[in-house]
Amino acid sequence: MKKIDDLKVKIFADGADRAGMLEMYAKPYIKGFTTNPTLMRKAGVTDYRAFAKDILQTIPDRPISFEVLSDEFAEMERQAMEIAGWGDWVYVKIPITNTRRKPSYDLIKRLSHAGVKLNVTALLDLIQVRNVAECLVGGTPCFVSVFAGRLADTGRDPVPLMSEAVKLLQNTPTAELIWASPRELLNIFQADAIGCHIITVTNDILKKLSLLGKNLGDYSLETVRMFYNDAQQAGYTI
Q1: 177: domain CATH number?
Q2: Which of 10, 93, 109, 117 is catalytic?
Q3: Number of folded domains that form the chain
Q4: Could you confirm whether 93 is annotated as catalytic?
């Protein structure tokens, strides 16, 4: 099994809890950060702009993605231009469609060729990946986030699709594929094995890195002890 330092895939921390982001910033293997409005709401963020600018002052030297908030493409474009101005390391998240399923391809192409670094988000199929790749040819650096974890939630194996996505982006050297929304630590090694460029990982999963290479006999014994101790502490009898 590879050690974390031997992986080629870049690990980005996914979250919006300030303390958690700073905890991950202290770890050299964390190469960037991603957020989204859902994570911010969960973390209790009330002022989007203020939160973003505070984080960018604290984490000034690694890629961080912030998402547009509008459902209208004209307003998305305005917001994207403002967000891009917040810092050199900022990537602007543009959803693959709006809530009415209208694709964002025209906006993606326009922004990319205007010099805005993008994180095209919420992709779930190869047609979307192919179309986005075409939009990005000749544009500025960009992330393409395929939600492999959500794909797995539907009972589909994400590895074949993600492997094909890597191939689809080979002719777009400015684009990097993100394995988004992983569900387990194993996904980091799966992403690395297929040549995926980046994987976004929550703090909860990252904390399991201490288990890498753990002796399975010891792990089995710890599990048995956990069950026994919990039964004793609960006072269960038969």
Answers
A1: 3.20.20.70
A2: 93
A3: 1
A4: yes
